[in-house]
Specification:
By secondary structure, the chain is α+β, with helices and mostly antiparallel strands. Helix content is 20%, strand content 31%. The protein starts with a strand and ends with a strand.
Length: 186
């Protein structure tokens, strides 16, 4: 299977919510991380889709502005892959590509609430152990953080809060590039 990672297309936006419903269920919006996203737009320079060679939408990843005791950061998620296509490397390719784009855009810290065994390979570590906390229920082992800039966590601790609407990357973002990915289907 081959696919292309591209900036989220206008037509993808209408496909994302149904994909999230199929992937995570309808009760997903009750989770604490959704409070951080309410009434905010995702960061457009960090919204990517995986597109099949025929133009079909396969997967999505988005990021949102957050703050950690006043320090700007980003929240990864949701990451969603069509359920029938999970386990084929699409999600990992999206995470890798988007974290590289976030780093290139000048973001220093990234938070995720997700499966530790999945995100550990991308450098995520337990956030609570770093002095970070979420205002709301969260499984501690799923609450994670990574530095996109070495040393960015030094002296940063406290409650994670919503970012400001219209937040942009701290540096002039480079235009997002497309990446073609080939995966063999086993």
């Amino acid at each position: 299977m081959s696919f292309t990672i591209a900036p989220e297309r206008p037509q993808d936006a209408a496909l994302i919510t149904p994909l999230l419903d199929r992937t995570f269920g309808f009760d997903r919006t009750r989770k604490t991380v959704y409070r951080l996203r309410e009434n905010l737009d995702p960061l457009p320079e960090l919204c990517f889709s995986a597109i099949d060679d025929d133009g079909s939408f396969l997967a999505s990843i988005r990021y949102w502005p957050i703050e950690i005791a006043g320090t700007p950061a980003i929240l990864l998620g949701p990451l969603a892959v069509e359920p029938a296509l999970q386990g084929r490397g699409i999600g990992k390719a999206l995470v890798r590509h988007s974290l590289e784009a976030a780093q290139a855009a000048g973001h220093a810290l990234c938070v995720v609430v997700g499966d530790p065994s999945y995100y550990r390979s991308f450098g995520f570590i337990p956030a609570s152990a770093q002095g970070l906390c979420l205002a709301g229920p969260v499984e501690p082992e799923r609450f994670q953080v990574t530095e996109l800039v070495v040393g960015a966590l030094a002296g940063v601790h406290g409650v994670i809060a919503r970012g400001k609407a219209g937040s942009q990357a701290p540096a002039a973002a480079k235009p997002a590039r497309r990446r073609r990915v080939r995966r063999s289907v086993a």
